[in-house]
Fold this protein.
Amino acid sequence: MPRRPSSLSQAPVRLDIADGRGDVLGDILSLGLLRNVLYKQIDARAPWGLDMAARNRAMLYIVARGQARLEVEGEEPVVLEAGHVAFLPRGPAHVLRDSKATRPSAVCDGTPSRATSRPTTGTRRIGGRGARTSIVAAFFELHRAPPPLLGRPPSVVLFSGDASTSDPLAAATIALVLAELEHPGPASVLLLQRLADVLVVRAMRSLTQQQACRARQTRGLVALSDPPIHDALSLMHARVEHPWSVAELAARVGLSRSGFAARFTELVGEPPLQYLARWRATRAAELLRDTTEPVSTIADRVGYESTPSFNKAFKRWQGTSPGAYRREARGSTRA
């Protein structure tokens, strides 16, 4: 029988493990974006060029050495120097090359899936025999039904590894990436993947601050900079199973029912209960994919009193039944 402590000072200390639920940006990134499916190092020598078609994946490029010209459809071209990072959250068509005069080659490596979710090693060598450019490329799977808050990010988010940048933590992360590339060791691929994740989070966090300075009609991440709407989103994310009503949410954040509903719809892009229903389906998809819990249990965990009503709602937002979704997810994992 365990010996009981003889004094209060000997009592075991309980360490509560932090639960990220309720952190809205963390939730939507972890479920809607941060599923790193491919990592690659590119060793390019001039002349070189890559022509990437629009795809359902976000992309992150880190220039470790040399320079690269990035041309994104609908945006002004930018020249990336060593230590620069470009994050393309919507997977737009773009060209990456050494100069405007170089004719790029189409990239045909296919669309990543969970079947290719393991880190890949090796360096892809392209181009001729001229000036050298080294690039770290990371690709992130996009959820089939991303939350509205991720629906309108800019085509390109740029970072610099300059220590004088307004985001010193991002600069420090970039420095770690460059150092790891210069002196790789065991598990370098895994470490670089995690550092790429950090840069994506920093990029999306910066967007919530940038969009707060734009016009009120801008929807999406700007909602996280509005205190009452951010609080309402946090409540829904923290307790997705709760039978929230518009009136209760409005009261909790100190707004009238009509004022809250209009403000939420304006900033988020859809009414509060529609957002909640969509988010419940997104959480349920994660549970179907990553656990063996029965569908009835998952239905209860995301706030549905009956399995039939959950099945109907899930199919509306995910385009397939819970059972079919789970079979597809398991099949792609085994492939």
Notes: Residues 221 and 331 are 34 Å apart (CA to CA). The longest strand covers residues 36-45.
